[in-house]
Amino acid sequence: MFETLLSFSRHHKMVLLMLLDALLLPLALWSAVVLRLGGAWDPRLNPHLWIFAAIPLWVIPIFIKLGLYRAVIKYVDDKIVYTVFYGVTLAVLILTAVITMSRSDPFPRSSIVIFWVFAMAYIGGSRFVLRGFIRRIDAVDAPREPVLIYGAGRAGIQLMLALQAGREYRPMAFVDDNPSLWRKTFRGLAVHAPNELAVLVKETSAKAILVALPSVSRARQQEILESLEPLRIPIKRLPGMADLVSGEVRVEELKEVDIEDLLGRDPVPPRPALMSANIEDRVVMVTGAGGSIGSELVRQIARCRPRLLVLFELSEYALYAIDRELAETCPDVERVALLGSVTDYDRVLQAMTAFGVETVYHAAAYKHVPMVEHNPVAGILNNAIGTDTTARAAEAAGVATFVLISTDKAVRPTNVMGATKRLAELCLQMRHARGSGTRFVMVRFGNVLGSSGSVVPLFKRQIQQGGPVTVTHPDITRYFMTIPEAAQLVIQAGAMGEGGDVFVLDMGKPVRIADLARRMIHLSGLEVRDESSPHGDIEIRYSGLRPGEKLYEELLIGDSVLPTEHERIMRATEYHLDEAELTGFMAQLREACGKLDAEQAFALMQQVVHEFKGEKSTCDWIVRRGLAGGLVSGL
Fold it and tell me: Which CATH fold would you assign to the domain 272-608?
């Protein structure tokens, strides 16, 4: 029957609560009078029984005005006590006036005070009793997963309350680092020390640990996640405090553990003066505006109030996606979306001159090492010649600042992609050295998290599919940085230097990819299957280094690095080629690429990029196909 009542409409439930109160209020007054009279009824009160029946006539309208019947019983909290307090207090004052004016002399006056107590207990208590019944029925109808909450602070308690009112998780206990909280209880949940976690997981059959520490640093979160890793239980975390304060997420919206949490790297707040120096009230152009880095640059630039934002992109869909996103998130920013290739000098020059571009962020590039390794001519054309073409157009259009997005793979490259990015740097350095009117700046950094083709989403997908997780080599390491932090640092680095500068971003400590894969498996609540654990869940399989792939990436060619005004941006001092030498190489390279002569293009790359040690396995797929058919010669 109780379930049938719960299925009633909201309006019907409100009527039922009013009827319940209409019964409880006379009962509370009768209980108060009988208690005052010592358990006996005074017959002299019989003519005044109408007072018992009339009391709901003014109390229920008071409750309606105070919003008591708008509260959803399942989610009522302690605030309802204040509503009942005000309502009952007003009811008692009116009751006193009614008894006085009706000259009900036999009515014991002190029973009015007792009525106040009983009414508070009956009306308020009925709500909490009903809430308990509803939640118990919910628990039976929708069994919830038992979980532990790491963090017994304000966020942890709010999370507990939200989960208790929900239908997905059942909080079983708190864990906290603060010894002063140990053995305390909140709503029946005890707080335990972290060293009791293993026992708690076993005793409560917890299916997950929810980390409710939105204000702690990334470094501290990393320490906590490392301590939880041996438990082999899924970990979820509360969003950061900034997201909670902004209202973008709610307390009960838990997230999977991000790779940022595993890295333990706290981003440095951007400096407004550096962020706006080349952007505010200027015409800014981003090439490759639809790519992973380019699109984040566009988002960051839009927040710095440019006069006009020019989006330049070869991919129609990528350009459409970022243009529509800006239309929704930054409708006040004037923008123009242009399709085109950075290898098309006339199109790039046309775009720059038509809109009076003042600052260029050149993010257009092919970046996937294996793809460029087997499509070397396309990679050289887009990355190296495309950068030189865009820089030439920028000079002709009078662009003030040109910022190149480079990569750590440009340092002593072993692959075509890295060599093309180093050649792009050399082209800009040469233009600065000859006295260009455009200030050329290069920013070099490592891998960014969440970019297309990134190893992290690949690992997540492989874990969800049951494995194996593929790693190229047991010892391979990489630097990682979030896309927003990389974009912010690129913009700030672009505001520094006199030109020809190669800025290197502080990427933190390199990450061993095999350890990253193992930790992601463990924090998903699974076990790595290996010789020591043959019955584990997910195998880590080593596929071998891909063509041109390094075990370790570097950020500097030489040992000379200078600090800058920003703690995470350094200035590298590196060699560059003179104009005559580089111009000759570029002419030959353009000719080789124009003829699709991959062998000659590859040989020229090794000559112009002195430290380039190309792989013997480098091969243009088209050339290989041509060799098989006896059609062409090449790599």
Answer: Rossmann fold (3.40.50)
8 Å CB contact between 592 and 604: yes
- State the span(s) of the chain assigned CATH 3.40.50.720: 145-257, 272-608
**Cβ–Cβ under 8 Å, residues 450 and 482:** yes
Tell me what the pLDDT averaged over the chain comes to.
Answer: 81
Q: Domain 145-257, what fold? A: Rossmann fold (3.40.50)
What residues have CB less than 8 Å from 491, skipping those under 6 apart? 270, 274, 275, 278, 279, 297, 300, 301, 304, 361, 403
Q: Which residues make beta-bridge pairs with 312?
A: 287, 338
Dump pLDDT digits (tens) for 121-173: 888 777 777 766 666 655 555 567 888 999 888 888 888 887 877 777 888 89
Q: Where are the alpha helices (DSSP H) in 102-238?
A: 110-119, 125-141, 154-165, 197-204, 218-228
Phi and psi at 337, nearest 5°, equal -105, 120
Question: Max alpha carbon distance in the chain (Å)?
Answer: 121
pTM (predicted TM-score): 0.67
Length of the chain in terms of residues written: 635
Cα separation, 244 vs 260, in Å, equals: 18
DSSP conformation letters of 466-504: T-PEEES-TT-EE-EEEHHHHHHHHHHHHTSSSSSEEEE
CA proximity to 361, closest of 190, 228, 493, 196: 493
Smallest CA-to-CA distance from 71 within 141, 139, 21 is with 21
- Residues β-bridged to residue 189: 186
Residue 58: per-residue pLDDT: 81
Q: Which helix (H) or strand (E) holds 541?
A: strand 538-542
- Bridge-based pairing of strands 359-362 and 283-287 is parallel
Tell whether omega for the bond before 468 is within 30 degrees of 0, i.e. cis: yes
Whole-angstrom distance, CA of residue 545 vs CA of residue 513: 13
Report the chain's C-alpha Rg in angstroms. Answer: 35
